[in-house]
Structure formats: C-alpha cells, structure tokens
Design brief:
With 595 residues, the chain is an alpha/beta fold. Helix content is 34%, strand content 23%. The structure holds glutamic acid.
Length: 595
C-alpha cells in the first residue's frame, strides 16, 4: 500500500515523478506529494486527494533529484499535513515511506524530548527526525544508523539537501530500483518504471541502496552486497488502459489471454504439463493453501478441483489467520497465493510455515517480488500487470495453476489429464464469448443497483466463485453482498430474504444442479427476486428464476472460469451505474503490504 517513487539523473524530476506516481495510484490515493532538491534547497508540495488534483495546483519544483508518494493512510487521517514527504526540523531531509513504524510513539516521545518539532500524526515523521539526529558525516551514514532503530515494516526513499545520492532502504515492504542511462529510478512497483526502463534491481530486507545517476551501491546490514538486475517482461502498453474506460474492464477482457498464457507456460500446444516447479519426491503430501481476499477464494476453488480429481489431502486457510494458528507439520506443502508477491499477511504466513519445516510454494504474478525470494518453489501466473484494485484476471490465472497442480499431484490417468487440459484450452474461448456479449449484462446490473443488499448462492465448486463475486460487489459497487452455499440459507440467512433482497444463483449444470433448483424454489417462496446464471439452452431455469443469464456450455470442472466472468461484469456494470470510482475504491488499495 502507498506508492513510492524516486528519480536521480539529468532531467527535471517533477514530470517523471508525477507520471510514475499515476501508475502507482492503485496502491493508495488519499493524499500525495513530491519533493525535489536543487542547489542545496528542498522544494516540497503535498496535498490531500489524487495525483491529478495535485498536478493542477503544483508549482514548478526545480531539481533533477526527487521523491514522490501516493498515500494509503495507516496513522493519521488523509490531510495535507499527514501527506508525504515528511521533513526534519531544518528542511534538509525529506522521506517517503510505505509501511508501519511500530515503535513510532516511543521514538517520537524521545525525539520531542530532545527538541525535535513534529507536525503530523503519522508514524513516518519519526524517520526524517531520526536521520537528522544521527546526521554527522553525511546522509548515507545517518540513514544507515536511523533504520537500525525502526521496528515494523518499511520501504523508504530519502533525499538530503547536501547529499549527492538518493537513498532507499527496505524491510518487509517492496521497493525496486530501475536502471537507466545516466539516470536511475526508484519505485514501489514495476508499472511506475515501465515508461523508463525494463532493467530493475529488487532490494532485499535490510538492504540500503545509495543511488546516484551513475551507479547503485547496495549494503546489506552494513556490508557491501551485490544484487543482480533482471529484465521485466511486461510492456508499457499492458500497464495502460488501451481505450477502456477503466483498468478493471480492460483486465476482465484480458482474462482469456491470462488463461491462455498461464496455460501455455506449463503446457505446450500438444503434450503434457512441464516445468511446474513443485516438490517432486513426495507421495500424497498434505497441502495447505494460504491467501487473502481473491487469492484465498482461488485456493478454496483448488480444494474442489483436487477433490474432483480424487485428491482430498488439501486445505485452505486465510493467511492472517494461519499466523495465529499452531501451524503445520514438517514436510507439509504450503502454497502461498499472492498476485503482487508482496501481500504482507501471506508473506508472514509463508515465513512461519517455512520455519516449521514446510515446503513452500509461491503462486504470484510478479517476477522478482518478495514472495519469490521467500518460497522454495515458484509458480508464475502470466496475467500481465493488474492495476485495478479489484482482482479479476489474476484470479482466473490462479485457478489455472490450481488445475495444473491438481493434475500433477492427484493420480489421474492420462485420458482424464488430457481431457481437463483440453477443457482448459476451450474455456478461454468460452470466456471470450461472454466478453463479446458483455453489454447484455448491463440491464441486470442496473437492476441490482436498486438494492442495498444482495445474496449470491451456489453449490460445490462454484461456492467459492460466489464468495469472489460478492467481494467484487462490495469492493467496487459498494453493495452489501453475502455469499452462501445454497444449502446454508435455511440455517439462518432465510430470515433476511424479502422482496427487496435479490439472490444471484449460479445454476450451471453439475451434480448439484437439482438441489440448487430446490434452493431457488425455496427462495422464490419467500418472494426474493432470483437472477440465475445458467447454461445456454436450460429451459427449466427460465420457469423458476425471474431473470436468467446464460453462459456457454463448459465442463462443470472448469465452470468457475466462465461463471466468475459473469459476476465480475455484473459488479463492474453495477459500479459504473452507481458512478463509483471503479479502479480506486474507497478505503482500499492494491498490494496490501501492511499486516
Ligand atoms: N504509515 C504511513 C502513513 O500512514 C505510510 C502508510 C502506507 O504505507 O501507505 O502515512
């Protein structure tokens, strides 16, 4: 959460910082600011609100070195004073920060006793004052000393009026250095760098990088360290809206491609699964999947996929809950799912599992992200950059990895394996068909905006799909949505069903179909409107549901991929109808890098 950027080179920093910040806004957007240095003088401008608003008021801040920040507040309300960068008492040091300084109250009290003057309510402000306190022989030494006193998590970028370098440090929060020609860049995440370079260095925990326009020197716990650079395979176009009104809509439309690319990475055009980086020598391992939000729901789908393919030794847990549990047995496969590779709760949980002797596997979209350095095995989804806060194509791509692991771990015969692989190839075409006719979902989405509460139901493998669908309605359309396995309604939620509580029911054919129809009839008996998602040609459903959305025919095992596409689109159109800030939902940010 929150985006950090930095520039040092031969060009004016301000336009570069602003452009990069706009590409990071999905990480936080309640306030923002930039600082530049010119001729030993610090220029600062910050305000509440988004970058476009800041840009309108921003005076020209001269300087070829600068830092910038877009905030997701953890300590102190969104306000101009609490916006970053934060300064020391003498306006000689500027700091932007992503993370939480857990001991800030203690540090702040001591610094105030020593005469430092604080302006904001943030935890961050202790950092420039600490650096000021240790400033004797220059900024590098002062930063190195100051970070030793910080507990919690941080990625920081620091500027000094008399320093020739830009300094960044990290502990548990992401930061990457982009390498240019006589210029270098800093950012929390890759999309901010794609305009300028595809060569990046990922810093590791306890690294400090001292960056000039010519070179990047890194120390790790005070010792010089070598970090190799990597080439990022994403193209700039992928991080742009490409004519779509919102990133979310673009990313839903990229779902077929995300499915195909992820599949193609591990399954050649003809042939079987290759290169799946999972432990090889275990028979029937215990598997625990960990994730948060959409990644957790993807892991719940895994449970059903494995079960359908004859493997029951798999469980899922919310990563932040696992942290407080007694953990796992030695040798368990622990699969951590995180789109960004930076989700703090998932990283923490994987670390714990690893310490307990688990074999850790990461499923992520971001090459070189923190989780790829933590886990023993890495499985990349190939979704391309996902900018919108609400996950869409990454969820679909995560499911693909689940099918591939299940096909590898469960002892399925080659006929079943080939059949499932063929279905996965076909499902990308079916998703595309839904997208081609996406507009026809608009009237139903408009209908749903008339209600403030919504229920979603399914049975079996589509139950986690309605959980994920409900999440979309909550996060982007601000409609309270609850998802249930259909059989659970009678155990409580029925009490809430009225004519003003619509129910969206996934009723695509599988072994649960008949009982799902029974559930719909029970709901109708309580006069709630029912919108069913059913397979094309289903005549029964038309007689009992108020509205039916038809999906192309697919095998039940892969139906989560088509059904989630419909729910994503419904939530998107509902949010649009309500005039919501779809890519930047209130109070949220992508890449939840605080625990
Ligand atoms: N804790 C800092 C603040 O509230 C940074 C939050 C963030 O990482 O977005 O300003």
């Amino acid at each position: 959460m929150c985006g950090i950027v930095g520039y040092i080179g031969y060009k004016q920093a301000q336009p570069i910082l602003l452009k990069s910040l706009k590409r990071l806004e999905y990480r936080g957007y309640d306030s923002c600011g930039i600082a530049t240095i010119k001729n030993g003088e610090l220029h600062l401008f910050k305000d509440k609100g988004r970058i476009v608003e800041l840009e309108k008021k921003l005076p020209q801040l001269d300087g070829k070195t600068g830092i910038g920040h877009t905030r997701w507040a953890t300590h102190g309300e969104p306000s101009p004073i609490n916006a970053h960068p934060h300064l020391d008492c003498h306006r000689r040091i500027a700091v932007v920060h992503n993370g939480i300084i857990e001991n800030y109250l203690d540090l702040k009290r001591r610094l105030i006793e020593e005469g430092h003057l604080f302006l904001s309510e943030t935890d961050t402000e202790v950092i420039p004052h600490l650096i000021e306190k240790y400033y004797r022989r220059g900024l590098p030494e002062a930063v190195s000393q100051a970070v030793n006193h910080l507990s919690g998590s941080f990625a920081i970028a620091v500027l000094g009026t008399v320093s020739r370098e830009l300094i960044v440090a990290r502990k548990e929060n992401p930061i990457v250095v982009g390498l240019g020609d006589k210029e270098n860049f800093v950012a929390s995440d890759i999309p901010a760098l794609l305009d300028y370079t595809d060569r990046v260095i990922y810093l590791e925990d306890d690294d400090i990088a001292f960056i000039t326009s010519e070179e990047v020197k890194i120390t790790h716990r005070g010792q010089p360290a070598i970090r190799n650079w990597q080439v990022i395979p994403w193209r700039l176009e992928e991080a742009k809206k490409a004519g779509y009104e919102h990133f979310m809509l673009k990313e839903i439309h990229e779902q077929p491609q995300a499915i195909r690319q992820t599949l193609a990475t591990y399954v050649p055009e003809t042939g079987t699964i290759t290169g799946l980086d999972i432990p090889r020598d275990d028979t029937e391992p215990n598997i625990l999947c960990l994730g948060c939000g959409s990644s957790f729901y993807a892991s719940l789908v895994y449970g059903y996929i494995f079960d359908k393919l004859g493997y029951q030794n798999i469980k899922s847990q919310i990563a932040s809950e696992f942290i407080h549990s007694s953990g796992v047995k030695d040798g368990t496969w622990v699969i951590g799912i995180t789109q960004s590779g930076e989700t703090a709760d998932t990283l923490k949980a994987l670390k714990k599992a690893k310490e307990q002797g688990a074999k850790t596997i990461a499923i992520t979209n971001v090459i070189g992200s923190t989780v790829t350095r933590l886990a023993d095995h890495i499985l990349y989804i190939r979704a391309g950059p996902e900018i919108s806060v609400a996950a869409t194509k990454s969820f679909a791509a995560q499911l693909i990895i689940g099918y591939l692991i299940a096909l590898t771990v469960a002892s399925v015969d080659s006929y079943t394996r080939d059949k499932v692989l063929t279905e996965l190839r076909t499902v990308a075409i079916r998703v595309k068909q839904i997208l081609d006719e996406a507009d026809c979902l608009n009237p139903i989405a408009t209908l749903l905006t008339k209600y403030s509460d919504l229920f979603l139901i399914a049975r079996g493998i589509n139950y986690p799909v309605v959980l994920e669908g409900a999440l979309k309605f909550k996060e982007i359309a601000y409609i309270h949505a609850d998802a249930y396995p259909a059989g659970e309604l009678k155990h409580g939620p029925f009490a809430l069903l009225r004519e003003n509580t619509p129910v969206v029911a996934i009723a695509t054919p599988d072994e649960t179909y008949q009982s799902l129809l029974t559930s719909i009839k029970e709901i109708k008996a309580r006069s709630s409107p029912v919108i069913a998602i059913a397979e094309e040609g289903d005549k029964n459903i038309e007689q009992i549901a108020d509205e039916v959305l038809f999906t192309p025919r697919v095998e039940p095992l892969v139906s989560p991929l088509t059904n989630i596409t419909i729910l994503q689109l419904l939530a998107y159109y509902a949010a649009k109808e309500r005039g919501c800030a779809i890519d930047f939902p209130v109070n949220l940010a992508k890449s939840v890098t605080v625990p």
